[in-house]
Amino acid sequence: MIENAQYAPTRGRYKVYLIDEVHMLSKNAFNALLKTLEEPPPHAMFLLATTDPQKLPVTVLSRCLKFNLKRLLPEQIQGQMQHILGAEGIACEADALAVLARAADGSLRDGLSLLDQAIAYGGGAVRAADVRAMLGSLDSAEVLGLAQALAQGDGKALLAEAQRIVAFAPDFGKVLDDLAALWHRVQLRQLVPGYAAVDEADGVTLDALAARLSAEEVQLDYQLALSGRRDLPLAPDEAMGFEMALLRMLAFRPQRED
Length: 258
Hints:
The protein has 258 residues and is mostly helical. It has helices at 2-5, 27-38, 58-61, 74-88, 94-103, 108-121, 128-135, 140-152, 155-166, 172-191, 203-212, 215-231, 238-251; strands at residues 15-19, 44-48. A two-stranded parallel ribbon has the order 1-2.
């Protein structure tokens, strides 16, 4: 590449080289690249992309303009997936794309990689059930069942819901993340006047939870979901850690005023 960069382009004014995950280059490769960056040909431009800029040598960073790209919103990633699938004529479910967009964690590249896997897993179609099975995630109704049992203070129902989830062998950290996200949505309804999210199929259930629980209880459950997520690696096994996180939410409740 460095040798080829010395020659003028046969078409257009510039040659543009994009090096993805540039921090993975070896020390020798960086040294060779540095010589070109110090005195780049006037017709060559280098785009260095990385998710870990701290690993780049200072000598390279000092010769570059740095742009920090923002994470994409799940809605933006989902829209791009929908556009691609429509152009390719591939059948999909909106719920499946929403799950994939959240799993992408702001990265369109990761999202498209997951989309490719989902197409292969689903035999040429993208279905919500297949995507959740592939990612080890659950239907939102399962997480709602946990929240409703907690709101009712029903330990028997809570354990039954938890054991039903354990039988799926999901990613327990992801389940607790989903539960924390649910508490966030409930809290918005409690503390933001007139809040109404668009396209929420479970909006009525969330409204009921917001009315039944105090704001303090929702805050506590949110924090316990986060701490339970963090403590999963310390548990004897993840299923036990997951159940204990739920039981902790049931055991600790803010004191209500008489």
